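Appendix B. Chain record.
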Amino acid sequence: MSRMVRRLIGLARDEDDTSVNTVKELLEMENKLQETALHQAVRVGNNDIVKLLMEENSELASLPKLGTSPLYLSILLEEDIIVETLYNASHMKLSYSGQNGQNALHAAVLRGTELTKKLLEWNKDLTTQRDENGSTPLHFAAGLGWRSQPGSVCWQVLEANPAALYQSDNNGLFPIHVAASVGERGTIIMFLNKSLRSAGLQDTMGRTFLHVAAEKTEVRIVSFVCRNRLLSWILNIQDNDGNTALHLAIQAGSLLMFCALLGNRQIHLNLSNKKGQTALDISRYKIPPGWFDDQNSEAKIHFALKAVDARSGSCRQDHSEENYNNQLKHNQREELKKVEESAQTTCIGAVLIATVTFGATFALPGGYRADDHTNGGTPTLAGSYYFDAFITACTLSFILSAMAIVGLIYSGYSLNPRSRRIHLLIALFSQSRPYASRQLLQ
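Structure tokens predicted for this chain:
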């Protein structure tokens, strides 16, 4: 209601001789959120009212002193025209502050390249300011993911202030750590091209961006570092717990990350962490004691380390064995529950295969000979190669399905964990063969 706004300002002006103070007090009045009428005009996106209020009092763009400024709000709402109006009408006397200690550039990097470009032209000092978490606009830009090409938001902020690469947040995380945590390899490459030394930056826990990537199982970033000779000097950096990227990759159970690291000759396999554990020690006690532990990634990692003659650390084996046995007992109870549930559902499949196979013998291919025939009532294709193959496949399918059913029953009933595993393996092996027979029949 722009006409009503103009009328109210006029009434305040005509009230008495102190109209100037009355109008100023009216326009600068704040609600419980410390917002003036200008904030409301921005929120509804009415540029005419914004112009009217700014013409009456250009200092409105600088209110409140702390908190969400009209400029910050207009950028969040992507009101580009209002952003221009606030800047031009304020005669450069405007506040860039935002919520949670942020400034307008923090919001601009989340809204696109155009708004970011304007803010950087108006005030480059915004690139050094941090929010209440210690994050600079470059921290925000580094987490944008795919927007890392030249001319992008991250590129603009970095070009405006390359030193922001070396500003950490309250947790000691640098922009390159943020990029690694979201798996943005392009942003990391851009940071390294600007400053290769940023690869060695460590947070408060002593982690480089490679440690962060390993913890987040960002395989592409770990593989990129392992293939880049210029980054070989960070491969064996240890964090505050003494863990290298190899330790963390094994803890994460990622076979792809482990293979990428193991394939680099610069990796030291026998470095111990603060617990005295080497990569081989961690791999040994990361193997889950399940029914198919030989097929797990952890088991393959342990086998590979033994194959390359990796060594154990200085930790006492009896202490590690005690912790492992406790974990084994706990996981064994969970595995028994899984076997009971899987035996029930898998048994349904085996019964269905047996039923279909049994029914197939009553609907033979080719049908039967007529009763007036010499061999009336016998299968038409009897004696042929295809008929014999059909009967053989049906017989095998039925027998193996029956064996699978019996094995599944015993795997869900037996109290001995070892017997359960044996019966389950027999059942699964038998059930896979009837399926192959059915495929052959089709």
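Further analysis of this model is presented in Appendix C.
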